[in-house]
Amino acid sequence: RTSSLPRPSARINERIVYEAARSSVVAPLWKRCVTNHQSTSATATGVIFMSEFWNKAFDLNGRCAVITGGAAGIGFACASLLVARGARVALLDRDQAVAEVAAGLGSGHLGIAVDLRRVDQVNSAIDTVFEHFKRIDYLVNSAGVAVLDKAVDVSEEAWDTTLEINLKASFFVAQACARHMLGQGSGRIVNLASQAAVIGLDRHVAYCASKAAVVGMTKVLAMEWAPHINVNAISPTIVETALGKKAWAGEVGERAKTQIPAGRFAQPEEIAGLALYLLSDAASMITGENVVIDGGYSIQ
């Protein structure tokens, strides 16, 4: 019975909080907290300390982000969240309306129409972003394509298009951004992979191959660019973007949901929330990881 267990004194509890906060890896904030709150109890100081840590970790004011595929879907959800946290964003997209989309996020943001399969256009776009913002802190590689067909019927064009957008473009955008990030001594990169990177899906041979390669690429970049740049991947299940809703409408979608333990598809905002965490200072010890967000589908 819990009522019979001895209870530690409040003084001991306060001391535990005090020591935990003081010895934290975010100790630089400790001194400021103690200075500002000398009269508070150790418990209150610990709470204030951690609150300040989280507020600072997710404060993106003065930071600049590049987001591919940013005109719609997951990319736009990521852009909206980063802007809400204070970042300025540059959206790279094949959609010619991307400049209008960026303007809709507020003043100071960029929208650049670019064919991500063209390395020369990628390099030019990233140079433009750097010249405008004078820094690049974050990259979210969200642009992607899925051309579905049985393996025996996949055309060379379908294969090449899938690999060019999902893999080649992701690498060369990351390379272009990393050159600036390494020069400034810091950066964060999040690559959008897929649950298709870790499981087999019929009619997805080119897509699965491209996304598995993105995860492998992520690990190598994390090794080569450490300790200055953190590189991670996110692997979602089906996401209810406009395209996702269209592709998985009706019976096929309802059947797919029954195979996901969570019983539903993911929302773009959920993917954006994970991206924000991986880009934030709170995730500074995470690199080279592939974080699966699929409602439990891949653990079955």
UniProtKB/TrEMBL annotation:
The keyword Oxidoreductase applies. It holds the Pfam family adh_short_C2. Keywords: Oxidoreductase. Gene3D superfamilies: NAD(P)-binding Rossmann-like Domain. GO terms for molecular function: oxidoreductase activity, acting on the CH-OH group of donors, NAD or NADP as acceptor. It comes from the Bacteria. InterPro entries: NAD(P)-bd_dom_sf (IPR036291), Sc_DH/Rdtase_CS (IPR020904), SDR_fam (IPR002347). Belongs to the short-chain dehydrogenases/reductases (SDR) family. NCBIfam families: PRK06841.1, PRK07231.1. This is Short-chain dehydrogenase/reductase SDR. The lineage of its organism: Bacteria, Pseudomonadati, Pseudomonadota, Gammaproteobacteria, Pseudomonadales.
